[in-house]
Amino acid sequence: MTQPTALVVYAWNGRGQPLELVNQDVAPGFEVLLFDYSGTVTAPEAAGFPVLSRKTECKGEIYREVHARVSAAPERYDYVGLIDDDIALAWSDLERLLAIARQQDLDSFQAALTPDSFHAHHWLIARPGQTLRPLPWVEVMMPFYRTALFLAGGPFYARSISSYGLDQFVLPTLQKLAGLEKVAIIDAVVVRHTRAITSDDKVFANGLTAHQERLLQWRMARALVAQQRPDLVGTRWYFRTFSPLGGHHRYWPLRLAAPWLWLKRALRTG
Predict the structure, then answer these.
(1) Which of 15, 71, 76, 160 is 20 to 30 A from 150, comparing alpha carbons?
(2) What is the distance between the alpha carbons of residues 124 and 175, in angstroms, rounded to a whole number?
(3) pLDDT single digits (tens) 214-263
(4) Where in the chain are the domains?
(5) pTM reported for the whole predicted model
(6) What CATH class does 5-193 carry?
(7) 200 phi and psi, to 5 degrees?
């Protein structure tokens, strides 16, 4: 039986040189798939790697297309990684990243960022002197997921264009429900994010902004918890996930329901 490998999906605009920011210093011991998000490339390969060409607006649709591809042969992969085309790295970085993840039996992980990288969260910056840090979730710019975890998100990817909310709300929910909660940022591997985030204020084809999509994913994830694990509603995990004090203030009002949810849980378990 063939040993599963990792699938590394690296985005490409379909025009310039693919993998322009990748130092191909070693032969990759993983499967590489170029994702042409312009949908214009007709050749089956580019730069020696297979191409999946689909016109997309943003990262959520890439999740959707990769999900469809991986679903056809899930036993082939142990991890699925989705890397933006503005991430500068080397193949050897990913080899080390995957080696650490397998050694630590991680379910979801990502590399840390250089101090000069564009970033939305301070905790993405590498902390010298340590191998990894446990975290509740990893960011969408270059996440790696255990294949079963990635595939569980299909219904959520189907409702996402921007990918906003998938990382912060959906994947932590799926991790909890599946018992796949070994999540970390790997400080021993440091890469660079070279462009600023540009999708914050864009209105997508579904009429929603990225922030409105995040709210939709938040509601869908909460509904899934209520349906499959109502015992988790009102727990410390629930509020840490869906109403993080370090997150956006629009999610804080959920904490006002804490006394009522606590009473509801007490009556149900009593």
Answers:
(1) 15
(2) 20
(3) 999 999 999 999 999 999 998 999 999 999 887 777 787 787 777 666 66
(4) 5-193, 210-269
(5) 0.94
(6) alpha beta
(7) -55, -50
Residue with tokens 């975890």: 149
Q: Identify residue 93 by its one-letter amino acid code.
A: D
DSSP character for 143?
A: -
* Tens digits of residue pLDDT in 179-207: 999 999 999 999 999 998 776 678 999 99
d(CA 35, CA 39): 9
Backbone angles phi, psi at 84, to 5 degrees: -70, 155
Residue 89's Cβ-side half-sphere holds a number of Cα atoms within 13 Å equal to: 25
- Which helix (H) or strand (E) is 59 found in, with range? helix 59-71
| Structure tokens, 125 | 């910056």
**Which tokens belong to 62?**
């890439």
Using an 8 Å Cβ cutoff, are 131 and 184 in contact?
no
**Other beta carbons within 10 Å of 253:** 9
Please choose, from the candidates 168, 152, 174, the residue with its C-alpha nearest in 3D space to the C-alpha of residue 215: 168
φ, ψ for residue 33, nearest 5 deg: -130, 120
Radius of gyration (Cα) for the chain, nearest Å?
19
Q: How many CB atoms lie within 10 A of CB 141?
A: 26
Cα–Cα separations (whole angstroms), residue 64 to 144, 159, 241: 15, 9, 23
CA nearest 141: which of 201, 202, 89, 72?
Answer: 89
